[in-house]
Amino acid sequence: MALSQYLGLDKSNNDITKMRPLVYRSTATPVYVDLYVSSITNVDEKAQSLTTQVKMITGWPKMKWNKTLFCGMETFAAPKDLVWTPDISIIERAFGRCLVTARRWMLFRVIWSCGRFPRLVCSFESSDGKNAAQLETSADFVSLTTACKMDLYKFPFDSHTCNITLQSTAYSVYEISIDEITNADGITGRSKELFQAQGEWELIEINVTKAFINIIYEDLNLDQLIYQITIKRRPLLYVINFMLPVFIFLVLDVMSFFIHGRGTDKLSFKMTLLLSISVFLLILNDTLPSTANQIPLIGVYCSAIFILIGISILETILVNLLKAKGKRSVETTTAVTGPNGSVSDSVRDQNEEPSSTLNCCAPIQQNQQEKTCLCWTRVARIIDVIFLILYIITIIVFLSVLGKLWIP
Amino acid sequence: MALSQYLGLDKSNNDITKMRPLVYRSTATPVYVDLYVSSITNVDEKAQSLTTQVKMITGWPKMKWNKTLFCGMETFAAPKDLVWTPDISIIERAFGRCLVTARRWMLFRVIWSCGRFPRLVCSFESSDGKNAAQLETSADFVSLTTACKMDLYKFPFDSHTCNITLQSTAYSVYEISIDEITNADGITGRSKELFQAQGEWELIEINVTKAFINIIYEDLNLDQLIYQITIKRRPLLYVINFMLPVFIFLVLDVMSFFIHGRGTDKLSFKMTLLLSISVFLLILNDTLPSTANQIPLIGVYCSAIFILIGISILETILVNLLKAKGKRSVETTTAVTGPNGSVSDSVRDQNEEPSSTLNCCAPIQQNQQEKTCLCWTRVARIIDVIFLILYIITIIVFLSVLGKLWIP
Amino acid sequence: MALSQYLGLDKSNNDITKMRPLVYRSTATPVYVDLYVSSITNVDEKAQSLTTQVKMITGWPKMKWNKTLFCGMETFAAPKDLVWTPDISIIERAFGRCLVTARRWMLFRVIWSCGRFPRLVCSFESSDGKNAAQLETSADFVSLTTACKMDLYKFPFDSHTCNITLQSTAYSVYEISIDEITNADGITGRSKELFQAQGEWELIEINVTKAFINIIYEDLNLDQLIYQITIKRRPLLYVINFMLPVFIFLVLDVMSFFIHGRGTDKLSFKMTLLLSISVFLLILNDTLPSTANQIPLIGVYCSAIFILIGISILETILVNLLKAKGKRSVETTTAVTGPNGSVSDSVRDQNEEPSSTLNCCAPIQQNQQEKTCLCWTRVARIIDVIFLILYIITIIVFLSVLGKLWIP
Amino acid sequence: MALSQYLGLDKSNNDITKMRPLVYRSTATPVYVDLYVSSITNVDEKAQSLTTQVKMITGWPKMKWNKTLFCGMETFAAPKDLVWTPDISIIERAFGRCLVTARRWMLFRVIWSCGRFPRLVCSFESSDGKNAAQLETSADFVSLTTACKMDLYKFPFDSHTCNITLQSTAYSVYEISIDEITNADGITGRSKELFQAQGEWELIEINVTKAFINIIYEDLNLDQLIYQITIKRRPLLYVINFMLPVFIFLVLDVMSFFIHGRGTDKLSFKMTLLLSISVFLLILNDTLPSTANQIPLIGVYCSAIFILIGISILETILVNLLKAKGKRSVETTTAVTGPNGSVSDSVRDQNEEPSSTLNCCAPIQQNQQEKTCLCWTRVARIIDVIFLILYIITIIVFLSVLGKLWIP
Amino acid sequence: MALSQYLGLDKSNNDITKMRPLVYRSTATPVYVDLYVSSITNVDEKAQSLTTQVKMITGWPKMKWNKTLFCGMETFAAPKDLVWTPDISIIERAFGRCLVTARRWMLFRVIWSCGRFPRLVCSFESSDGKNAAQLETSADFVSLTTACKMDLYKFPFDSHTCNITLQSTAYSVYEISIDEITNADGITGRSKELFQAQGEWELIEINVTKAFINIIYEDLNLDQLIYQITIKRRPLLYVINFMLPVFIFLVLDVMSFFIHGRGTDKLSFKMTLLLSISVFLLILNDTLPSTANQIPLIGVYCSAIFILIGISILETILVNLLKAKGKRSVETTTAVTGPNGSVSDSVRDQNEEPSSTLNCCAPIQQNQQEKTCLCWTRVARIIDVIFLILYIITIIVFLSVLGKLWIP
């Protein structure tokens, strides 16, 4: 196992194995990175974090040795912590999650065997060029939880763009340069291929940008590689399970104006509607975290319908009151005119307002009080019709404005 | 304890103990693997991951020594981290969970005592053949959380196939070859035997396939062993606790057409139905994550019934309106004909529509207005009957289509 | 600190400190174990795992030295990881939880001082016999999560038996033998004494069995010590909070047959019952995981009551329909016989069916149509009575069968 | 850095740095402990565990050196794991949580410089006395999760006493003696001062007791320091949000006896009450774990009110039935006596029972059947009144007994 | 790699690398700290803890070497654990969370090259002044969970001030002095810039104070840097989703006084209101932990409205009872006066109270009993009106007081 000694892997002191092999010539060590998103595990709107399964491939210049000197050995495996690996890390990482299927072993392979490998550590020459065959590569499957600014305003029709910024933690741009292996299109394509989880989120696109950051405190220039991941929520289940039922309740509320019967029946019908929407507010409360500066549109949608039904209940109470007033005056009249023969006319059930009002209005040749009656019931009826028209217009306007904001 | 020195276990440097003993002759080291699923702990549909308890047996060529040289010692135990073990890992592993009852100690045993063990590390000869007695084996009980693409479309009648792919992390096919010890049937059989948890999921089958993967970046050919685990959800509790109640609500809704009484009673009955289904939507919301491209059938089932009942409420409102219109015209007529002797006939409670319509229709020899009355109530009745027939047909068609999609 | 050197504790290499001191004579090293359950922290029916707080005492032959040679030192404390401890592990352990109050330090004490301790490691003599004073003991408080097959069929009257199997991970029966210190009765007694948490579960019994397992792959015979822990759920809160309310709803449903009033009042009463049971299904859904091959009895209980009330609603609708039919025919008759003097008899409120049917049946000397009326209402009444009897019988049979299955 | 060598901190072998410096003279090393509770993070009634933030101060005899010999250095900082610290641990600790702000560095300081520090490790002299200035101290902020037997019987008016027992894990009473620095009053006072979280729990008192335990297996006598922490739940929010609403429902139920109207209205009112209490049982189910031998009083409270309302519904049904029977017989009578002139008297709405019963009872000079009528309605009325009185008495007795049990 | 040896990084013993380089001259080593809050991940009111993402920059005097002696190397990277870093820790830290993107590598850079670096470790000179270019800096992104006293009294209009106290764990004020780099304004500004998460909480301000603490036990004076973070909850979603619906229910309750119809309709309307509020109490129970000495205002708000509606239900029952009493006496009168011709007058539906009372009151020339009737109904009406006025006044007073307390 002389090779291992030769490569400096057998020493227990940290000199060589843990230090970055300094490049002899002053050029920076090129590091190549690829990052594929294989699944979106969790999107936590409350903590504003995105958990993804990421396959990250890092490549850097190969180690080399003369295979004839070491029993013709062409490959050579060593635990990963015995060799230097680039210290690329992710800035947005929110919570510490360990690398998962990270390779704990590296396989080194002879590239060329030209002459003895100079014992000088500094002369660890970099083979430039993206040719992967000339790179030591390390493929890690990482479970990443990155912070991501998410705006829930358009929930559940929202789409978010999250950044994953790769950057060396210690080496400046003069020591390490970071580049992507595959371009954005290739990464998007392959990510979609790899994309395993058919979850709530759809992967739209992955973009790669090369950036350059200057850390003031340390006067340190760093290369950055920014991956922009665009994801879109699949809204169908929310529409079906939440928005549609609430909309049906709204339609039922509008239709309840045509309920024929005692006014209190209409009232209890509408109260049951309100109660049902309260149950749905329970679901909304579970689904939607209290984030955001603006209220999410779905909250506006739900609350507006709640308020609308509340107002329509108030209107029903008012109209009922007016009708009752109308009826009562009629009755008083008939009670006064009671002694004459038309007594039995008043025997009909006064719950049946329309009939009683018709009755009250049929004989127009009556006294002053009759007219007041006429007045009240007419007012009630006019209010009812006008309110219904305004109500429907409000709903249409509200829904169309909301729809435009929601799905532009 | 010379044996330990002899086997190279006493050295604190990593040379021998942590490096793979390179095979002298160019054949790859054979590694044999068996994987039994002993329980399915968790199936997270949202994160699209499967947590299983797995018993994984790995076997590789035995170490050997001459027992006569070492005080006749036949067995020899050493902590696991002092010896080389194959670096088989699982690709789909989603979250880092530690091995659980993993053996921390290996027991080595003499196989044969032919001559001195050559001090040359390279000559660590492999004993080929699956004969387990000639293998060092290591049985680990692992709690695995693997990513698994799950389609909830047929929930709760769904079954999923999850892969567990075993692969060396560093050694190419030229260094390590992976094979299964037991075949698929044996593994399925023994897994079912071991299967402890009588949980929501039933283990249907475990399949083993040998695959071969080429990692482009590194020009590395790897052996893979793919275990395909097929599991099936036990739907009974969902059927009993969720689908049956919702179905009962649908039946009650159909039967509510035969409710005799004031129209508003029918309405309040149906509204209570709708409210109850809202409560069940709460349960559905807890149970079903918003995943999937297509809406899961159970969401369609629930929403469709919700919408159907909503429509039937609208129809009830319409029919009531028409009936009320019919009644009202009759009354107007009778009010006009009031002065004659048949006054007391109109005294009957107008809430009782059937009777009033019968009344209205009995004396056919009446004027124009009477006919309108006849018309409205007849229209209402015809609409009611036609709607009921259409409603029942719709329900039957919907349920049979759904049933076919669900349980093909 | 020569003693530490003498005992081999000062060496940084792993030879002696981490290796099991091989017994010179060929007998196995006796290891004695005791396991007390001090609390049941969690019983996860879904994951089918049991989390217990366990006090585990392990004893093995003492180390010895001549105290006169080492400044008369009689005791000697060393960090636990510097000495060999038996590698007893638990097979069912489901999730990795660390030892909690595990002693990190061992205290060694002189037993006898006969002559120099031979420098030969192999001669580490075992003192046989369970005499604890002659054992090195280690008491660990462990938080164990073990897999346990739980059948929720009888929930909440269920009791489960979970195994904790202790076994050496590496040493065969020839090297280590495992025995219990205290017998089953002693352990049960002392566990109940220690039992801290007055939680949902009651500790019934702990049983100890010695087993013997043969691992085929390695031709390894192992001693096992199986602790069988029997626990019983305290059902009272479930009975009070869940089963009793649902039973009260059932009683109310039966009693609702005696509700006097309009048929639709009875209907709305029953619908509210159904809605309330839906709310309780919400609780059931939270409490009971969807496990088990058979549906748990509590699910059957809940669903059966749900279905029973559903059926009784259907019957109420049917009976109401029949009664309405009866009434209507009477009215038609009276309408025909209207012109004569008994007109005003038909003026009574037809909502009050009993009276109207009595009316209809009182004057028997009427025509054919009257009899049909009689027929319909009689049929309705008979159906009502028969259904009630059948309903009560069904409920009694169902509850008694369920009761027998539940608490045999 | 000769001082570090001198103190034995530079050695990589474990001899001196990790071993307890054995006391030369046979007295035990005195260890002084103080424990302050700075907040109660979580009280898990289900797992019966208490999570507290604890500030634990440990003091032990100081290290010393001659400052003139070491460049006049007076202080000296070293990572904590390089020096011996007392192995005090907590017995009740339920789950492994790491020390949090534990000091990773120790600061050593010269005390006196009298002569050379003898190179003999055994002579590490203890400075006795609680004088803190002569103690090495280590202040750790620990997040402790300790098992604690909690009885929820009086929830939410419960208070619990949890023990935190400090004990050396390895050293017997002959090697280490444990004492508190501050007495109970001082600790309670300072804990209340430190107490940060204004959570659900109020810290009442902290008590310190010195105990002495004998571990039989090892013949080991240990010093213990038991801190008894008494905490009290702040019940106000539970009273306001849970108990008060349920009580209001009970009051409404009692008042519902005075509801004037059709019997079925009273019924539907009471059913809505029952439904509302079901919703509150949902909350209770979330709040209260199913622990305890006895049912918690709050469960009794809730269930008893549920059952009481259930019974009052049954009574309402019975009374309604009796009243209906009474009315019906009257009607039969009047129907028989129908042919005479008083026919129109029976035309009045029979829904209005009081009037009809009055009617039935007004003309006393009637036949036998009339009397039965009288009887039924009278029975109904008497039952109603008696039940109401009994009901109110039951409620008062129940609530006062409950109140006494709850807040003695 | 002589430089590494020269700087003392190659030694495996802990002398130099892990010990704080003692300052030769007696001045304390200046340490400069900056702390930016980049997001608020979680605010746990129950555990009274605040989880923030914090960027913490620590600067301390630079290491230096003569670049000409070491091949002209100007920069030099080393793993962080090989060099001394200041042991600044946070006192309030509640739970152990690892540093996240903490730099594992430090980059050292030549500052000046004047002469040989003296081999004496003690002469590690500090370059004073905040000039960052002369500081070794380390930027850590930490996920901090700090204890924070939060008062939920004004929830959801609450704002909290949490402290993050930085302090050396071992070094006294004579060894290390802590200062901030940027002042409070700069930190607030840059934090707001960095602030990523648009969550429930708004960052108001960050304040920096320098403090000085004396630890009595150790006679240790420590520098402290206290960052006071003021955050404010965004209440909009709570207002919209919780407080508004409950307020609407209150309005509906007030308006229900104007419901015209049978008294029981009003009752069932109010009961449905109460049931709906119960559903919202479910949400409140999920949202608000039972903390706080005083009940949070939102609990008072919710409970007060609950109680108000409960009282208004009681009043409705009372008024209905009085009205019924009034009506009954009238009926008795009319029954007595029945024999005369006005019999058919009493045939009208007694459910229609207003009409019947009017009827009863119209003919004033009646006997004593009539007057009692008049009395009862008048009392009922007066009570109703007075209660309504008082009720509205109570509500207005309550809401305005609450509003003042809430948003001063």
From TrEMBL, chains A, B, C, D, E:
Catalytically driven reaction(s): K(+)(in) = K(+)(out); Na(+)(in) = Na(+)(out); Ca(2+)(in) = Ca(2+)(out)
InterPro entries per record: LGIC_TM_5-HT3 (IPR049944), Neur_chan_lig-bd (IPR006202), Neur_chan_lig-bd_sf (IPR036734), Neur_channel (IPR006201), Neuro-gated_channel_TM_sf (IPR036719), Neuro_actylchol_rec (IPR038050), Neurotrans-gated_channel_TM (IPR006029), Neurotransmitter_ion_chnl_CS (IPR018000)
Domain Neurotransmitter-gated ion-channel transmembrane residue range list: 244-329
Pfam families in the cross-refs: Neur_chan_LBD (PF02931), Neur_chan_memb (PF02932)
Keyword Nucleotide-binding: no
Subcellular location: Postsynaptic cell membrane
Neurotransmitter-gated ion-channel ligand-binding domain span: 18-235
Transmembrane regions listed in the UniProt entry: 236-255, 267-285, 297-322, 385-407
Endpoints of the signal sequence: none
Record-linked PROSITE patterns: NEUROTR_ION_CHANNEL (PS00236)
CDD domains with a match to the protein in the record: LGIC_TM_5-HT3
Family the UniProt entry places it in: Belongs to the ligand-gated ion channel (TC 1.A.9) family.
Purpose: Forms serotonin (5-hydroxytryptamine/5-HT3)-activated cation-selective channel complexes, which when activated cause fast, depolarizing responses in neurons.
Record-given protein name: 5-hydroxytryptamine receptor 3A
Organism: Cirrhinus molitorella (mud carp)
